[in-house]
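README, section 4: Worked example with a bound small molecule

Sections 1 through 3 covered apo chains. Here we extend the same pipeline to holo records, where the ligand is supplied as SMILES alongside the sequence. The molecule in this example is zinc ion. Nothing else about the input changes; the structure line simply encodes the ligand pose together with the chain.
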Amino acid sequence: MNLKRSQYKAIMRKYEEKQLFIKHEIKKRKEEIYQKLPLIKVLDDEIASNSVNTTYYIINHPEEAESKLEELQENNFILSRKKINLLLENNYPQDYLQPKYDCNMCEDTGYIGNEKCNCLKQAMINIAYEQSNIKNIIKDENFSTFCFDYYSDKIDSRFNLSPLENIRIIYSKCKDFVNNFDNEFTNIILFGQAGLGKTFLCNCIAKALLDTSHTVIYLTSFQLFKLFGDYTFNNYDEKVPQEKIESIFDCDLLIIDDLGTEFNNKFTGVELFNCLNTRLLNKKSTVISTNLTSTDWSKQYSDRIVSRIFGNYEPLKLFGSDIRLKKYQ
Ligand SMILES: [Zn+2]
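The generated complex, written as structure tokens:
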């Protein structure tokens, strides 16, 4: 991802601030505990000196390294258990002296070895796609705040199902999609007229996958096609960097919201096919929400797009009346 140097530096500064904050917090807690429970300091000192003594011993007796390290591990485990018991007996949580990271994978450093951690990749995506507000939106719109009250329980004879029963099925399918994300390659297309909760469901999926350290790009189809257009035709002074386009093809999840409402021409058709097809070949999941019916799809897009989507996406059709109106009644 081609961020400006200053943007990258700003992200890394945040990581450094987080680490400093955690270090400071742990130091403060240690001082507090050492004062209240001095035995914990004795145990910590013992753990530290055991490690130093073992290291020296191994330098002089390398042939015993394995057994000595095992012995050290066992001893330290016993001492750590004693520490935990002391904390619990004194009404502290057992992890009171452990650092609490936002990302346990990289311990808030942004890197795992020399590789960028997904949390750093996502921070860069958020800046590149100006989706830094995504976290705020999904604070309110996620699986735990999804409200079924707006959906009618009257059977719709066309489907022999009520909108409420239907949305419950769709909700649980979206949850399954998230829960099986790492093991099962699936794509979803959410159909239905405006105001039935499609964007809300997209947000639920985005939030759940961001929380489990996946990279997610969320674009309306208008933004997606504008990006492809700017990249190809270089309409603007600042050219869209290639890395930015590439991440659309290889992020863990691409969400295209509101597909079908954008202007449609040969160019957008080719770009859309290319994007969806590449992601399918790379086994990268995509979620599409659209107002178009399947008949509209056949009219608006070429056969190869239609067959690509309908052959590889699980169609979830929402129906009922506009819930946005009910929210304000
Ligand atoms: Zn991380």
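What to look for in the output: Residues 5-111 form one domain. The longest helix spans residues 5-36.

Section 5 describes how to batch many such records.
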